[in-house]
């Protein structure tokens, strides 16, 4: 039964779903409309599933058909992208992939990205460039970077944002601090000690969101120490300037300790980001790699509606 579904059928299904009209789909596919209608009807009869309901002015997709439509659109898109990339590799036309990264992104994420690219595009160079998120976003807009690995949130219709990692956001303190004897830190206690923050100018959106979240649990912090790197944050904590919030996976000096915040479930989230207009042939394949690695399924197809950006998680790394 399932062998009845050939790739040409997937192309037909995708075209019909995108046009919601057999005649327009047939024109796009360079087929006669009666032939297209018959092949889809034969397929539906063969697999025992009605994919489309026909009307005098068009068609709509059935609930069961929606599953097949989503698969068909993704399969056709994947085929086209992979062939385009493979042709570019064969012709030696893959340009270096220029990747920016924030110093607050865990190195294991960058290693995973580098390994995946080397496996998917053997012999094709990758160039890394560090910087703060605001700078890297600007460079992508200027087309001097193809993509970047950045802390979330990143908003704006001009970005494709694919979440790649998430870790708890925890309080960093000296190991000899009395707070380190506690299993978790109460918000009222944190409010008096939280003074060390990342420089807001490096990622204004993340800083604003963090202030909002702190406000939701009754904390209005005194922002007295600003850091530009994880090393700066740890040095400030060691020097007794206060405590800080960090990604739990951050490599920690032995003189420091971390504890969760009581009654909250905050995370530091990281994403692979590129402009929606980016043209590097490797980008859609890398996005698919991340989705597969994270167990994320493609979004359902919604006919004639603008697709939204990929789901963005809520806080900074």
From TrEMBL:
GO terms for molecular function: DNA binding; DNA-binding transcription factor activity. GO terms for cellular component: protein-DNA complex. It holds the Pfam family HTH_1. Residues 5-62 form the HTH lysR-type domain. The keyword Transcription applies. Keywords: DNA-binding, Transcription, Transcription regulation. It comes from the Bacteria. Belongs to the LysR transcriptional regulatory family. This is DNA-binding transcriptional LysR family regulator. It comes from Acidipila rosea.
């Amino acid at each position: 039964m399932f062998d009845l579904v050939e790739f040409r059928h997937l192309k037909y299904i995708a075209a019909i779903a995108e046009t919601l009209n057999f005649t327009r789909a047939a024109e796009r596919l360079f087929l006669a409309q009666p032939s297209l209608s018959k092949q889809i009807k034969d397929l539906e009869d063969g697999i025992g599933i009605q994919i489309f309901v026909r009307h005098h002015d068009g068609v709509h997709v059935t609930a069961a058909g929606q599953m097949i439509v989503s698969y068909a659109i993704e399969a056709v898109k994947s085929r086209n992208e992979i062939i385009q990339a493979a042709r570019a590799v064969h012709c030696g036309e893959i340009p270096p992939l220029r990747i920016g990264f924030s110093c607050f992104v865990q190195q294991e994420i960058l290693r995973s990205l580098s390994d995946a690219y080397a496996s998917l595009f053997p012999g094709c160079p990758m160039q890394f460039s560090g910087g703060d998120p605001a700078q890297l976003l600007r460079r992508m807009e200027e087309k001097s970077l193809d993509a970047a690995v950045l802390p979330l949130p990143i908003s704006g219709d001009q970005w494709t944002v694919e979440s790649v990692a998430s870790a708890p956001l925890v309080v960093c303190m000296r190991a000899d601090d009395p707070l380190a004897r506690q299993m978790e830190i109460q918000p009222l206690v944190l409010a008096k000690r939280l003074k060390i923050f990342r420089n807001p100018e490096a990622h204004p959106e993340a800083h604003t969101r963090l202030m909002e979240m702190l406000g939701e649990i009754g904390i209005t912090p005194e922002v007295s120490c600003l850091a530009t790197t994880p090393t700066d944050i740890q040095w400030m904590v060691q020097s007794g300037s206060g405590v800080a919030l960090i990604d739990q996976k951050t490599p920690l000096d032995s003189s420091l300790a971390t504890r969760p915040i009581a009654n909250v479930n905050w995370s530091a989230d990281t994403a692979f980001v590129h402009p929606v207009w980016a043209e590097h042939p490797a980008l859609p394949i890398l996005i698919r790699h991340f989705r597969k690695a994270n167990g994320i399924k493609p979004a359902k197809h919604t006919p004639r509606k603008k697709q939204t950006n990929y789901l963005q998680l809520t806080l900074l790394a």
